[in-house]
Amino acid sequence: MKTPFRVRSILLLLALGSSLHAYDRITYMVPMRDSVRLATDVAVPEGNAVPRPAILIRTPYGRKSVMEPLLLFILVDLKGYALVSQDLRGRGESEGLDSLFFSDGWGRVRDGYDAVEWTAGQPWCNGKVGTWGYSGLGIPEYLAAGTTPPHLLCCFVMVAASNLYEDAIFYGGAYQRALVDGWLSEVHNPELASFFIQHPNQDPSYDPVNLSARWDSVNVPILHMTGWHDIFVQGVINAFEGIQNRGGQGARGRQKLIVGPWEHNITQASTGQLTFPNSSFTAFFDLQVEWFDCWLKNVDNGADRIPAVQYYTMGDADRTDGPGNSWIRRDDWPPPARDLPLYLASGGRLTSEPPPVNDPPDFFEYDPEKPVPTVGGRNLNLRAGSYDQRSVESRSDVLVYTTPPLTDSLSVAGRVRAVLWAATDGIDTDFTAKLCDVYPDGRSMLIADGIVQARHRNTLKREEFLVPDQAYEFSVDLWSTAVTFVPGHSIRLDISSSNANRFEPNPNTGEPFRLNTGFRTAHQTVYHDAGLASALRLPVVGGSLSAVQIADAFLPQSVRLERNFPNPFNAETLIPVDMPAGWGERSGSAIRIEIADVTGRRIRQWILGTSGQGRILLRWRGDDESGNLMPSGVYLCRLTAGSVFQTQKITLMR
């Protein structure tokens, strides 16, 4: 991942027409408290001996890669900071054993603390130190902040884990295989995985990399940045919430959080197969520098007074306007929300109505040797972001539950959970859940997903095995998101037992992690009756709570063409068509919808099959069959269904 400064830095250089200046570059071997020395590069303006604030970056990827000319130009030449880049212990040219961040916090050695205090005491530094970093550079920032270095004044942390066990290694007790094994291979230290085999539960050995136990030790303002499809999104949000509400005096109430519709690579414009409008990371470039100027130079630039929370609520990515697709500013997180349960029901329905007493359960078989493949999601080295899930939803080992198309918008922001009542015929297994936004054209676009390992359904600290074929409650944490489901879209929940290679497939044997002697196929039961009501729990913050209820209850009695909305329209309009149950069997004819100009010339046509029922919403963007945009004017929308013929007027205003 390249440094996020790159794009805006290039623009800045072109605007200034400037050439890069020369710098004094000094390499130190900095002793830690146990005498292990860490390789450290320092850049200050050439020949300038004036002490200055320092920005410290500690990295597992090689300190020289941090010292990019453009980054040096902005931070050192333009802004006058000393830039310090250090190889983590056992990485690059630093001495010691690579400890996977375990030496960066508050354990026996405290490399983060020692690096900050060493920097503050150098003659080229005025005693004021800030830290900057993303991902593997951001994790050491969180850990250093938890040791309360006296000379650390602020941090800027992007896409980083604050609790290594829960955020990065074991999600709901399931091993994040692609992320962890892939990253360890990337940094050429795969043998570190042996530690996780020996410690699959969240035991005290993970305490030195768990900032959540030390919120009150953090005493500085931190600007936290992440994306809804980032591998560490919940870890960043947890750090913001924990420090904002329970941090030390210098940190409490002074945290800032920015969450975009981004993947782990927040500089990337697209999010999987979607590109959300007005969502570019570069809009926040200037804020990064202003943050350091505010806290390290006492510049009154307003960086300390920006809203505590700025988050992007996703919508229909094909639309440039709302609902959704906008930035929301708040003083807190999460926003006040009403819990909306959407219940699983027979026939693949997701409904606002509680299930009846005798609604029969659903069944599937989970074969760990033929797991459901990962298709997008919060990934690092697999395809990341929002991808169409239809290729896996067609599998027999995936249960799919969907609402009817919504008749109004529904905005969700906060933690999403799927609460399942389920059983398996073994003593251990996994259950997975995916929240999807189903577009009118049928695409099932991933919003959030999660997993729970059965043995860790109650706690990550110990294993509690199942009684075969007994029903248990499983809470699948899909982490946090913000999305507006718009009219014409449906909400979908996919349930299965695997998502590989994102998560290591559970062998279903109950044997210790990665010490299993074989695999067994699990026979899974998912209940959804009045006594065992499985549900998707959504934190609803806006729109109409009745949107699902109205769509759920609506069963038209006759074919009818309703008024389009909005009308007049500019970018697009939705055309409601009511199709009663059994229409195809009774009439044997399809429903044809046409758009014509005032002369009667046909411009667009849709043919609806004979098998659907309910309200169907057609989307028209004011184009013809070839995709050419039509001019402003009045158009006719005509429905033909057997002997039924209806017409409505639509006004297009460019």
Helix and strand arrangement:
Blueprint: H1 6-16, E1 23-31, E2 37-45, E3 52-59, H2 63-66, H3 69-78, E4 82-87, H4 111-120, E5 125-134, H5 139-145, E6 152-158, H6 164-169, E7 170-171, E8 174-175, H7 177-186, H8 193-198, E9 222-229, H9 233-246, E10 256-263, H10 285-297, E11 309-313, E12 326-330, E13 338-345, E14 349-351, E15 362-366, H11 390-393, E16 399-402, E17 410-424, E18 430-438, E19 444-453, E20 472-485, E21 490-496, E22 522-527, E23 535-543, H12 546-553, E24 560-561, E25 573-579, H13 583-587, E26 591-596, E27 602-608, E28 614-620, E29 633-641, E30 644-652
Parallel strand pairs: 3-4, 3-5, 5-6, 6-9, 9-10, 10-11
Antiparallel strand pairs: 1-2, 2-4, 7-8, 11-12, 13-14, 13-23, 15-22, 16-21, 17-20, 17-22, 17-23, 18-19, 18-21, 24-25, 25-28, 26-27, 26-29, 29-30
